[in-house]
Structure formats: C-alpha cells, structure tokens
Amino acid sequence: MERLPKIGLPILIIIVLLIVFISKASVNIGYGEAGVLFKTFGGGVVTDEPALGEGFHIIAPWNKVYVYNTKQQEVFEKKMQVLSSNGLEISLDVSVLYQPKMEKLGLLHQTKGEDYLNIVIVPEIRAVARSVVGRYTPEQLYSTKRDAIQNEIFEETKKKVDGQYVQLNAVLVRDVTLPIAIKEAIERKLKQEQESLEYEFRIEKAKKEAERQRIDAEGKAAANTILSASLTDKILKEKGIEATLELSKSPNAKVIVVGSGKDGMPLILGNQ
C-alpha cells in the first residue's frame, strides 16, 4: 500500500476538521420556524436580539440553536371533565389554536422551554374551562349559552397566556356531553317549550283572523247602512224605469205595461 505523501496528511486532517466545523457552526431553519440562539460562553439564551429566521445561518461551533415551530398549531383537549353550576359533571371537547410570539421567542425558551404547550397552554385552558363552565347550568351549556361560554374561555385564557409569550388565536368548543338523563330531560323540556310557543302562535293567529273578520263585517254593515239610508222610493222607481227601458231594447218580443206593477213599476209581459 502506497503511503500518503507527507503534505497530503495535514491537508486531509484540515478538510475533516473543516467539515466538522461547518456541521457544528451552521444551522438551517425551515419555513414557518425560528431559532433561539444559546451562547455557551456569552450569557446563555439570547433574549435581546431577534430570533433567527428561515434559511442558513453560521454560528460559533460551541453555541447551539433551538428551533421552534412558529406557525399556528392546534391542541385538542378531548373529554375534559368540568362541573356545572349545580355540580353536575360535564364533558367538553375543546380545540385551542396557538403559536409562540415570534418577538418573544427567546424569553419563551428561557422561562418555559420547548415544552411550553404542556407547561402554559394545557393547564391554563383546563383551569379556565372549569371556572367558566362552573357559572352555567347544564341547560345553558347544551343550548343558549354555548357561544358565550366559548368566548369567555377564549378571552380569559388569552389574558393568562399573553404574559407568558404565547399567542392564543382561538378556542373552539367542539362538543358538550351531558349525563344521559340530564340530556333527555333538557330535550323534553325544549320540546315542550317549542310546542307551547307553537300553540301560542296559533292562538294569536286565530285572534288576528277574528279581529280582521270583525273589522270587515263592521265595514260592510256600515256601508249597507249608508246605502240603505240613501235609497229613497223615488230613487228606486227611477232605477227601475231605467232598467225597464234597457230591457225594452232587447230584440225578444215582449209587452211592457207602464205603471201596472207594485209601486207603479212597469211590468214586462210576453217574454219568449
């Protein structure tokens, strides 16, 4: 085996050292990520400078970079057990949309660490959900107040995590599970209330129709009264004569006797 030239061995060593140096002194941060720099000999976590953004970065080989996902993320808390205002156990399915605050990433890493989800968000959402749900009855949770409860959980949790360098984007109450007996009782009550409202609606509709008919009848009666008062004997005779004259123009054979009818009205004889 041919021995390496004396000059070749140092070059090989330098190349190996250079490769190790580059691998230790560089970091590539992907899309939707950011890096927190830890200076081994320079004060630890860097909190007074912006986090390292996406792309390739050169660092001192004795330092380290902790990479965080800065995109919006979701944690799903399933079957979270809480108590209603009257002490009944309720099960909630809640989704939380969150992300770390980019400008506070160094402080988040320094004070909470990479497992900030289980240190900050999960405990806070559980505590707030128990507090908020405890103000409401099962019926309110099941029907009318669900959106209000969701908003309250979001607002109160947001206040708590904002100071811990986490951005809360939304809290979504996916499902509310009540004890079966309570759920059935609520559904029966809601059905009865709906039927009662429907019955009241029909009664009100009938009242309005009766009122409409009464007003219509009163109007017709008033019109008849006015008409009757205006129809004198003289006017009736005049209208009868006008009608008789119109009939006399008909081509059918007839005999008209003027003044022979009741009240002196004409008679029409010999209609064919």
Q: What's the architecture of the largest domain in CATH terms? A: 2-Layer Sandwich
Q: State the major sheet.
A: 3 strands, antiparallel
* Corresponding CATH superfamily of the largest domain: Band 7 domain
Strand content: 15-25%
Principal-axis shape equals: elongated
Query: Could you state the order of secondary-structure elements as H and E?
Result: HEEEEEEEHHHHEHHEE
Our count of helices gives 7
According to CATH, the fold-level topology of the largest domain is Tetrahydropterin Synthase, Chain A
Computed structural class: alpha+beta
Backbone CA Rg: 46 Å
Mean pLDDT across all amino acids: 79
In helices, the fraction of residues equals 40-55%
Number of strands: 10
Biggest sheet strand order reads: 3-2-5
CATH hierarchy class name of the largest domain: Alpha Beta
Spans of at least 5 consecutive residues whose pLDDT stays below 50 are none
Number of domains: 4
End-to-end C-alpha gap: 146 Å
Secondary-structure map with pairings?
Elements: H1 8-24, E1 26-29, E2 33-39, E3 44-45, E4 55-58, E5 64-69, E6 73-83, E7 89-100, H2 105-111, H3 116-133, H4 138-142, H5 146-162, E8 166-177, H6 180-230, H7 233-248, E9 255-257, E10 267-269
Antiparallel strand pairs: 1-4, 2-3, 2-5, 6-7, 7-8, 9-10
Subcellular location: Membrane
Membrane topology: Single-pass membrane protein
Protein name: Peptidase
